[in-house]
Amino acid sequence: METLALPSFFYCLIAFSSTLLQFCIAADTISPGQSISGSQTLVSSDQVFELGFFSSGNNKNWYLGIWYKKTPGVLVWIANQNSPVTDPSGVFTISNNGTLVLLNQSNHTIWYSNPSRPAQIPVAQLLDSGNLVLIDNTTSTSESYLWKSYDYPVNTWLPGMTIGKDMSNSLNRFLTSCKDSDIASPGDSTYKFDYKGLPQIFIKRGTMKIFRTGPWNGVRFSGLPMPINQFFFPILASPNDMVGYKYEPKNKLVLTRITLSESGILQRFVLREGSTKWTTMDAVPNEMCDNYGQCGANSVCRSYKESTCECLEGFNPKSPEEWKLLNSSSGCVRRTPLECQWKDGFMKLEWVKLPDLLEFWLNKSMSTKECEAECLKNCSCTAYANSDINGGGNGCLIWFGNLIDIRGYNQENPGQDLYIRLAASELRSIRESNMKESPVVILMASVICGMLTLGFVFWCITWKITSRRLGLPREKED
To answer: pTM for the full model?
Structure first.
């Protein structure tokens, strides 16, 4: 059979088309002279993330973003959120000195990166983590990134992304919600680190506090007991000048992301292998006691009790009428004023999220006993706790004024111990009351035990009588 000979340029065309197709499908980098426009995209090497242009839904504004390739509607990052391209003819490219640039139809720059230094051989790469990075091919390590999208999060927190502040350059990484009506428009809610004293994280809607993790106590945030799950583990990142928080995946076959909604809900989603449907794993705030200051000042919120809000021992509701109507926002006030100096003492409150750091003092080197003495020296001190729970507890954290946003946990989900300052007379009253209650409790326990015993004996007698009447076989006696 005769073989048909094809002209040599057909082989070249086939080879070129194959190379071009491979670039269009699998390319995860661009270099100077290359660009992305229209429907062209970059795809991470593991085919999980994709970068390209998308419309916000009205087909008038276009943005450069990153999304999951399997679920394109789930965006994780937007470059030009505040500077849209008004038609689909935008161009994403890289300059010779290594600046990422987004141009509009008039070739005007509407967004650009701010690399830390010029690059000899600049390359932009979409990593398997969903992080768009600018590297110098002469030194392409994670420590040498000239710029990265992880430093500029929008509403999504991905594994390996640090939420927090780099003190060396004042770069602050935090989440900002997007409006439900338009994913490309910034919302009013934020998830952001607070750096006063000990690090803690807040969800805020505008300036109003919605949720608080509690301060970091050396092991975890006191209001976020260490989670036990199969998907991720959290890390407090504090190398050198960096203070932040991140999480890493345990199972790379399961994708996970955290998103801040427009209403201020922080939700964790998971996508299992082979699925295209994201499921919600958890969310905060999720229950009444997650809400900031739910029970008012000088109170504790316990979601596992029938009476969710309780005044601290030695305190009474400021407005009993409102508390009867289940409105505890007015909080609680002292029954007995502090006597000051060494005449006061402390009541231990176990397993709680520590109060907000509104008026406080911190010394990380003090012992617990020294901290107690320091609090008693100041008539304005109202409570103290260890700043670090490692090694049995050390460091000194002192509060002044009202105690806000305390949450209580049970033993199965422990928080941290807090020592509330009370007048000596108040402490004596509490102890005497407890001593009076103890005999009553013991008596009630003896009565209940006796009743159960008598009930059991009565049941045994009744069973034997019934067995004999019915002719049932009896147990042999020794």
So the answer is: 0.84
